[in-house]
Amino acid sequence: MYLQSYVLTHATTHSLDRYLPYEINFVQMKKILKIIGWTFLILILIGIGIGTYFYQTNPMIKAIVNNDESKLYYFPTKEMANMDDIDYSESILNIEDSIKIYTYEFKATGNKKANIFLVHGAGGNVSSYKSLIKPLIENGFGVYALDWRGYGKSTGIPNYKGVMKDTEIAFQDFIRKTTKDSLKTIVYGLSLGGQMAVKITKDNQNRVNLLVLDGTVESAQSLAIDYAPVEYLKEKAEESPEDFNQDYVAVRDIAYIKNIPKLIIHSRIDRDIPFFRGKNVFDSAREPKEFWETETDHIMTLRDLTDEAIEKITNKIR
Length: 318
Fold this sequence. Notes:
Elements: H1 2-57, H2 59-66, H3 69-72, E1 75-76, E2 88-96, E3 99-106, E4 114-119, E5 123-124, H4 130-137, E6 141-147, H5 160-178, E7 184-190, H6 193-203, E8 210-214, H7 220-227, H8 231-239, H9 250-253, E9 262-267, H10 275-284, E10 289-294, H11 301-304, H12 306-316
Parallel strand pairs: 1-5, 4-6, 4-7, 7-8, 8-9, 9-10
Antiparallel strand pairs: 2-3, 3-6
Helix pairs in contact: 1-2, 7-8
Protein name: Alpha/beta hydrolase
GO molecular function, one term: hydrolase activity
Pfam family, one: Hydrolase_4
């Protein structure tokens, strides 16, 4: 009996010894998995916290997430810079009951060569572009420019339908004021204004003699893609073109402009609108067309390459 008990006890102990390491390993594994789980959860919470912080504090990220175009594409300033050293007049156009926009007519120095309808970019207001307007008027071009709703003295809040309506009504006013002088008409679009310039030209091909684009935007969707701060938002923008303005798209609309000469300018070192965006717009355009590759800051061709710019524009309206 004693021998039998010893053998049974020894066998049982031996059996437990054999399985004990596996039990210990299982316990250790549970601890490791628990640590990994908590670590992963903490990282997720930290990520959510960081994302929420940037969403609340970074207007651009918030605008991209919410597709808030009034903050995503438009950066107006209300304060007007001094333009007393330029000969100009200003007018007010009533767009809607609560919307009034200001337009500016800059008088050409000497004999006037042509009339330019200038559509400025997303930032500032007309006065912010004085350094680009001066070379034009000093070389014989009359310039008509407008401030969209929300820009400068103009009332309202900018949005893609509103700024296009402002541009169309201003262009009608421009045509009324310049028809009698029988000079040629140039539509000149800068950056975001390039989209409106293309649309205006497409819709008024019997009234426009030259289209000039400098640092033009390709589309509203391309802006969202290029400025997306994280890959997720970039992919979201790429996969959802319907989320963005389709009423006027420069890279699409320019293909419908037939016989009007086009001068498309884009700087290879442009940090605001990638060089290939301007090239895409050019590739979509019909002849006659010219692509002028520069190395200036964004839309600064008239300021930095005045003589060449004036020569190219003048030659295209002869």
